[in-house]
Amino acid sequence: MQLILIQLNWDTVCLERDCYNIADINSVEGLCSSERAGHRLHLQRTEDMDHHLTSRWVIELTSEHPTAQLAAQELRRAIQRMGGPALNITGYADDRRLALRHGSDGDGFVRIADEHGLTLIGEGPRGLLYAVYHLLETLGWRWVGPGPADEYVPHPSTITFPTTTVAEQPAFARRGLVIGHDLFLTQGEAWIEWAARVRLNTIFIHTIADHGMPLGACRQRTWQSYRNRLWPLMHTRGLRLEIGGHHLTAAIPRRLFRQQPDLFRYDGRRRVANGNPCPTNSATQNLVYAWAKQWFRAEPAAAVYHLWPDDRLAGGWCACPQCAGLSPADQSLLLVNVMAKALAETNPHARLAYLAYHDTFAPPQQMTPAANVELLIAPRRRSYAVGIGDSKHPINGPLADAITALRTTFPAGAGVFEYYLDGILFKSTLPPLGEIIAADLRAYHKWRLDGVYVLLTGDRPWLAPGPNPYSFAALAWNPQHDPIVLRREYAAVRAPTTATLLDCAYAELTTAWQRTLNITPAEVQRQQLGLTRDPITQPPRDLLDGYDAPPPHCEQRLVALHDALDTLHAGETALAAARRSAHAEQAALAGDIAEWTASALVLRYFAARQEAAVVQARRAPPARQRQAIVTARATYAELLDWATRYVPHSARAGHRLLRAIFALHLDHLESRIAPPWRRLYLRWQRLGELVRLLAQLWWDWHTKP
Ligand SMILES: [Zn+2]
């Protein structure tokens, strides 16, 4: 038998000459040596192939690699679930076969059709697994989220395999799902299986030390209790593990402050035991080095470690004479390099991340990263109304400049940490962001980032995943996908008989949120963590809480929010029609409708809060101002009613705590116009509620595994 070699740029693959048209193979070669990312090629053979599946077909696999074995099992199971025969898995077949092969490493794959069947060749074992999932997608399978209602299984009368040849390479080498709350860690098995099926290749467990408040990260203890169950699932699929979070301050225990205050930062007046340590102090560096080494040894399986500084907007670094000349980014990178030395000695193949976030977003000027340090960009203070690459946008434009500058500073690699599944940033909802995700990932690809990660966090489990997880995964593989098509596919899986109506409702919700998310720099400046003694006059405020920005911003925001509410009417009509006509998919559709409703209620609350702020700014008559507060409190009550129906008891205290921030915003506005007795009452009432909720949460965190 004659053999030819095809150089596919990632590996050298042997193929039987009889099977192929040489010109076609040259096309594959041409594709792979040119710009590969996101491209695909379909080659049609001239003669007919009989690709109808019968019980004579077999799966051919010689590899004993566990990921390749899983690929064969997944293929076999899927064919059975489609109504096909249970195919034998054999080491050799000369006809009617689905041949599975792989090289040493990588995510790319080719699928070659010939008269004997199909040959799936992965760059590495994981690439082969992706080739199998891709083949199943071609046969009609979809996984639009991690649950059973998110899976579509086709049931054709006969299964016919494609007769096209396909070559695929991902646009981004690393495509990660960041699990950022215990709630999602408890669903970890489903999320990991889903991540592999949609060709993500990294699971990042975002942790917080056990003494911290795990509102936007997994407790280390929870991860440790799940690790033995979840790590084998990742390992079998060839998924990489990344781990960590804002842990750095744990390197310098607060109890050392009395004896060694110089370990801690100088705030311009004195040493203080908050924020980050003094990075130029050699004793600090020794402690950080030893602590990091322990950390790396405790989590030996990770490919990338994240030991980030404190989660603050600004002001958490040192101003002592030795540090004063170093920017926050330089101070941070100094300690990252100390830890990178410990990592190189402990695990020379692993990397350590430097986090560009808030005040470390500007590139470091004086420090250069160690060889095993890579960049993680977290552009949280941005607008999600337009793509990150929109150079004319007053918020995103400067961020884009900083990202391109950062990229050149970190030659070892760069990834971006995005927030499309962040229930904290988006107020316990998930705005559909398909078009923004597409625009972002095209920009990140243009800027030559290697990795894209999405943070999955929130204060409650989702009743439906919404279109974002599926859109993110598909676009991380190929940013040229059409986000509208992806949203449509989501709707078709969740509600097959009313897909058009559900898609229409999501389209309207997308527009409504787009208006809401189009924030201005004046509004962003209202952001504050609210870590003060008086949460009434200085409540915590995140990016979407710039309600009392000065005119004309507050007035413009009100107009935008009223436009958003107008947009929702068409979506409500579509959902009502879907509810009337749906039958089989009632449960899944009910989940989407409930999530849609929560999103709409949050937008109503925003509009009512804005109205209260605007009538104050206009100095409307006191009765009008009071009435606006009463109306806003009614929208807040609707949000609490929704939570009573849909938030499970185990998540209720955490959800109520974050929702209480909305009440604090209304207290803040009311306290400006209320008589002293009322202000006192508000303060007493709200503090009582916060204490009760925090006590409940501390009890849960410290008594439940
Ligand atoms: Zn210092």
Structural overview:
The protein has about 700 residues and is an alpha/beta fold. The chain is globular. Residues about 1-45 have low confidence and may be disordered. About 45% of the residues lie in helices and about 15% in strands. The chain is built from 19 helices and 22 strands. The protein folds into three domains: about 5-170, Chitobiase/beta-hexosaminidase domain 2-like (Chitobiase, domain 2, 2-Layer Sandwich); about 175-490, TIM Barrel (Alpha-Beta Barrel), CATH 3.20.20.80; about 510-705, no CATH class. α2 links the parallel β4 and β5. It has an eight-stranded parallel barrel with strand order 12-13-15-18-19-20-21-22, surrounded by six helices. Strands 3-11-7-8-6-4-5 form a seven-stranded mixed sheet, sandwiched between helices. Strands 1-2 form a two-stranded antiparallel ribbon. This is DUF4838 domain-containing protein. Keywords: Hydrolase. Pfam families: DUF4838 (PF16126). One of its GO terms (biological process) is carbohydrate metabolic process. GO terms for molecular function: hydrolase activity.
Summarize this structure as a short list of keywords or feature phrases:
705 residues; alpha/beta; Chitobiase, domain 2; TIM Barrel; disordered N terminus
